[in-house]
Design goal:
There is one protein chain. With 296 residues, the chain is α/β, with parallel strands linked by helices. The protein has ten helices and eleven strands. It has a six-stranded mixed beta sheet. Strands 2-1-3-4-5 form a five-stranded parallel beta sheet, with helices on both faces. Helix 4 links the parallel strand 4 and strand 5. It is globular, with a radius of gyration of 20 Å.
Length: 296
């Protein structure tokens, strides 16, 4: 059994506690034992799960793993502390808000022989799995992925290329390595509105565009327009919801890694994808910041 602590009790952290208390029968998650939770707020017990201090969580020999569900800007500090304390770590995406920091922390995990798992539940949805099947084997001509959603507090969530890295992950997972050709950002701070547009080329020089648009009243939605030599995909495929929740699927994957049930090849491919997407997010931010400096 791996004694586990949940750090951060927002929506994701609360779901993590629920799933830890109700693991799927005969699943890898049965090897995780919820020891307690850490929060900046004084909450007492939640569903009979006790609140413990950060110091106790880091120092306890009964805790071997931590699930980091804090706001994005706090990921780096928490991942670093728990790795330094010799714990395995699961962290919600984005892993951190800097590509170089991500590599440093991954190196630390490997040096200490610990699992560093980054949640990317967007790859686990039935909708995405069906999309991947429909894209497989087709030759891309051009494509666009346009996300809309409510306003975010960028101080806590990070630059849009990082907070929206789930969309970038889709593009890299579907079409392979990408090169950033340009990126711009329109921002109306007084209206809490932001629209980031990033342009890429695939390895075969085909253009892809990612638009991340957020503002008050914008409905959470994803629109695609992927054109192939055989025709265009203009709507996400309809797919039934999985009987197993997305966070539970992710928790099972983390537990499989702890149990040594994931191949080195799979681990290496996942590491490459996560770090490559963070590199691309960093490049997009740099493009946007350069333009801001030029215009100012």
């Amino acid at each position: 059994m791996f004694g586990t602590v949940v750090v951060g009790i927002g929506i994701a952290g609360s779901v993590r506690i629920r799933d830890m208390l109700n693991p799927m029968p005969s699943s890898p998650s049965e090897h995780l034992k919820l020891f307690g939770f850490v929060s900046r707020r004084t909450l007492g017990n939640i569903n009979e799960v006790k609140q413990i201090s950060l110091k106790d969580a880091l120092g306890s020999e009964e805790i071997q793993a931590a699930i980091i569900s804090t706001d994005n800007k706090s990921h780096e500090e928490n991942v670093r502390m728990f790795l330094e304390a010799g714990k395995h770590v699961l962290v919600e995406y984005p892993m951190v808000l800097s590509a170089s920091t991500a590599r440093e922390l991954w190196d630390m995990a490997e040096q200490k022989g610990k699992i560093l798992h980054v949640e990317h539940i967007e790859l686990l949805t039935e909708e995405y799995k069906q999309l991947k099947k429909e894209v497989a084997g087709k030759e891309l001509v051009k494509g666009t992925l346009h996300f809309t959603g409510g306003a975010l507090d960028e101080e806590r969530s990070g630059f849009p290329a990082f907070s929206g890295i789930a969309r970038l992950t889709w593009l890299v997972d579907l079409f392979g390595d990408l090169t950033v050709t340009s990126a711009t950002r329109e921002e109306q701070k007084e209206k809490s509105y932001s629209r980031m547009t990033a342009h890429f080329q695939t390895a075969s020089k085909k253009p892809l565009t990612w638009i991340e648009e957020r503002g008050p009243g914008l409905r959470r939605d994803k629109k695609i327009n992927f054109c192939f030599k055989s025709g265009c995909l203009e709507n996400l495929p309809e797919a039934p919801r999985s009987a197993v929740g997305l966070f539970m699927q992710d928790q099972n994957l983390f537990a499989k890694k702890l149990l040594g049930q994931v191949s080195r090849e799979e681990l290496a491919a996942e590491k490459w994808r996560i770090l490559r997407c963070l590199d691309l997010a960093e490049e997009i931010r740099q493009h946007c910041e350069r333009l801001v400096k030029i215009h100012s």
